[in-house]
Protein: Stonustoxin-like helical domain-containing protein
Organism: Seriola lalandi dorsalis
Amino acid sequence: MFVTCTLNTHQRDPLAHHIKVTSLYQETALKQPVVLSLSFIMVLLSGILYLMNYGTVSSFKGKLKTYLTLQAFRTMEVAALGRPFCLGMLYDCRSDSLVSGMTLWDLNDLKQNIRERPQNYNDFEIDSSVSIESKSLALNVEGSLKASFLSGLVEVEGSAKYLNDHKTSRNQARVTLTYKATTKVQELSMNHLGRGNVKHQYVFDKGIATHVVTGILYGAQAFFVFNREVSEKEDYQDIKGKLKLMIKKIPLFAKEGKSSLKLEEMVEENVFSCKFYGDFSLEKPPTSFQDAVEVYQSLPKLLGANGENTVPMKVWLLPLTILDSSAAQLVRQISIRLVQEAQSVLEDFSELDMRCNDAMRTTTAQQFPQIGKKLKSFKEMFSEFKLEFQQNLAKKLPSIRGGGEEEAVLAEILKKRHSSPFNSKSLNEWMDCKHRELPDSLLHLMLSLFLTVWIFKPCKNPLLSADKVHTAQHLTTPTGQIWYLHIFA
């Protein structure tokens, strides 16, 4: 892989009229490609401007070589997400997977000369957002790793299971309390990474990994997810605001004790439900507000007197090509734009799932089995498409990162989804029509006239093809809308 850039300038240096930067890797100690990123493009553009104004070809090439060298030797930071990392473990960034059973050193060598330093920190946050983005930020899931999670390549454990928690109804008011603590950092030393200190050199030839774990931040995290069902008579934003104020008091209650609660708050708290995702070993997970206060109060002690109960939270990865140029390597990361597009697709599916669940819970859907059956079939249909979409992503990501395929392949998968009948607009239009078809008050009126009746308002969406029906009559509502009554054949 090489970089080619041709420039046409009008500066005084005639050599700069046609500049070609080719295969700079051959002029440096680097013998492998470097992951190209937006920052690389910015460096290249700034170099062009530098040349056009007062620079020289040699100074520009020097700056570019320095940048490429730094990128090739750059360590990566990734969230552990409950995965069993340990120092010296091999990691394949192409598939974001751990390589177990094979290391560069013997176990005894790994245990010796490990550097350790304290990293004491604890804090809490309140979050009322339910988006994938907000949950990813809470767990430091970024960039290419997020793409692996969205596609299902990465299986999460412990507190990271919070990433898989989704609202099941739009009528749920949700607020999350996050507790986070860190205790120490452990790192390999030059006794491991220095020249000639790698014992099992043949591992490089296997091509099974791209990086090695050289540092680990230990700690623990916990998420208390509080839900409150909001009825039609209640104001959603008002309930959510009260819930948020209530949850903010938990850290205070944990310090001052349960006696700080007022009587009316004790009554109100029983309306909330609680789900717990954490890296802590609990005898019983909290299910109520009172349980959550007691568990939150015990979290610092559960870390252990010396932090012995902590888990990896963040790891530092060193490219294997630094230790041996023949090792496998990460050729390119997935661009942020495509990761955001994939995330948006899955956010749309989550929203659609909630709408479908709410529709199936209505009195209408329960009293008319045919309607409930159609909604259930619709949900199964788009769930199957969602799974297929994720599987396609999971299949292509390792190949793209390893240089086997271009990123355009991923862009094509996203493009096909937008042009298919399963695009967000078509699916939501289908649900919009279903909601217009099934107003509970009107159906209750019709229930006295027909045993099995379906109120149908015509819609242009091709997804609305229904069973063959016989039109019985039509009526005009007080608002002037015409609704057609159909009895199933």
The CA atoms of residues 304 and 310 lie 8 Å apart. Residues 6-72 form one domain. The chain has 17 helices and 13 strands.
